[in-house]
Write a structure and sequence with these properties.
428 residues; four-stranded mixed β-sheet; binds shikimate-3-phosphate; 12 helices; globular; alpha/beta
């Protein structure tokens, strides 16, 4: 993919459905009694992996793919309605599928093996194995390296409390889902609050769940199928927010964006950088708050990003690093060591590619120090097949001189299949 600046971004865009919420709508719908109807479902490859896994376990799921979103019917069979898959479960590139599904599988009355692509097989799974083992689960890493493939022998679990060393919604959600199959209350305390979509949606389906820094769930709830309209994904909106901020003369209205406070750190950081972003039409999409965002190009200044803010913008840090590259001053990102264990090592890959476009940047063990405001130029970008890196440099291309070439550009289909088309349509 070759991208070069053509014109300011102007107009309106409906942001595709939230990836985290889309995954959970399938999983919880499958464990509920009756039909769950999902609209604005994200048809990215990750969410299709979740559908495929549940179909393999006997759940009837119909998906009508529209041009921008999917309409899904999940015919749930209740907490104990899954059956043993005939083959290994394949989560593709999706960490959310791998980690949340492992929690569900640990409490089944059958055994499974679960794996994913080359990236997934390098990502840490001890973080879910440790709490699941404490709950009495039988889970092991087939290659004994703390990574997938995982072998899970289903059994009745023990309710337990877990103090998580990481603020991770995937770890928290895995434990809560295992807690559905435990003999008592299961609780998790996080060092900082991570996205709370599981808590909000499980409660919406009828689970007895307490939320906050410590989250707890009672076992064996009766979950009932629901109607879910997935809000637009703020992590996808982030690329268009950034593009509109960077390209002079831009004005974009991003419609129906999820603004859950456990996800909205990008907005807060952009505003601290001097961004002109206005929230309009604030509303709710089921349990999730959403709004339209009016974004106008702005002169940005450097900021420091760290602490409890990090989990609320973890997936937006690559594109925030691009904003920092064009902002006046030196931006410091810290407390973000989690970036090293995402779809790629995002600290290493961002540093490599920012350097290629001429930005002075230093990688640290838990972040980056980025000196912004120099003129930057197009280059050949290797996103290491990481969707968020590819989209971040597509945004950078609009503010660089010359052409940007993005290798393996179609990796964006993991979370945003129509990304380049949407960008081209707004730059006319
Ligand atoms: C996700 C949680 C985040 C995020 C990922 C999706 C989820 O991971 O990076 O893209 O849907 O729960 P961690 O919570 O493990 O940081």
């Amino acid at each position: 993919m070759i991208i070069q600046y053509t014109a300011p971004l102007r107009g309106e865009l409906s942001i595709p459905g939230d990836k985290s919420v889309s995954h959970r709508s399938i999983m919880f719908g499958a464990l509920a009694n009756g039909t769950t109807e999902v609209t604005n479902f994200l048809t990215g490859a990750d969410c299709l992996s979740t559908i495929a896994c549940f179909r393999q376990m006997g759940i009837d799921i119909t998906l009508e793919e529209g041009t921008r979103s999917g309409h899904v019917l999940v015919h749930g069979k209740g907490l104990h309605g899954l059956h043993a898959p005939s083959d290994i479960l394949d989560t593709g590139n999706s960490g959310t599928t791998m980690r949340l599904l492992s929690g569900i599988l640990a409490g089944q009355s059958f055994d499974t093996t679960i794996t994913g692509d080359a990236s997934i097989q390098k990502r840490p799974m001890k973080r879910i194995m440790t709490p699941l083992l404490a709950m009495g689960a039988d889970i092991s890493s087939v290659k004994n390296n703390g990574c997938a493939p995982l072998q899970i022998r289903g059994r009745k679990l023990r309710g337990t409390h877990y103090d998580s060393p990481v603020a991770s919604a995937q770890v928290k959600s895995c434990i809560l889902l295992a807690g559905l199959y435990a003999d008592g209350i299961t609780s998790v305390t996080e060092p900082a609050i991570s996205r709370n979509h599981s808590e909000l949606m499980l409660r919406y389906f009828g689970a007895d769940i307490q939320t906050g820094l410590t989250v707890s769930i009672a076992p064996e709830p009766v979950l009932t199928g629901q109607k879910i309209r997935v809000p637009g994904d703020i992590s996808s909106a982030a690329y268009f927010i950034a593009a509109a901020l960077l390209v002079p003369g831009s004005e974009l209205l991003l419609k129906n964006v999820g603004i859950n406070p456990t996800r909205d750190g990008m907005l807060r950081v952009c505003q601290a950088m001097g961004a002109d972003i206005t929230l309009l039409n604030e509303d709710h999409s089921g349990a999730e708050p959403c709004a339209d965002l009016l974004v106008r190009s702005s002169h940005l200044k450097a900021v420091e990003i760290g602490g409890d803010l990090i989990p609320t913008l973890i997936d937006e840090l690559p594109v925030l690093a691009v904003l920092a590259a064009f902002a006046d001053g030196t931006t410091v990102i810290r407390d973000a060591a989690e970036l090293r264990v995402k779809e790629s090592d995002r600290i290493a890959v961002m540093t490599e590619n920012l350097t290629r476009i001429g930005c002075p940047v230093e990688a640290t063990p838990d972040g980056m120090i980025i000196t912004g405001g120099q003129p930057l130029h197009g280059a050949t970008i290797d996103p290491y097949k990481d969707h968020r890196i590819a989209m971040s440099f597509a945004v950078a291309a609009l503010a660089c001189t010359g052409e940007m070439e993005i290798l393996d550009a179609d990796c964006v289909k993991i979370s945003y299949p129509g990304f380049y088309e949407d960008m081209a349509a707004l730059c006319k």
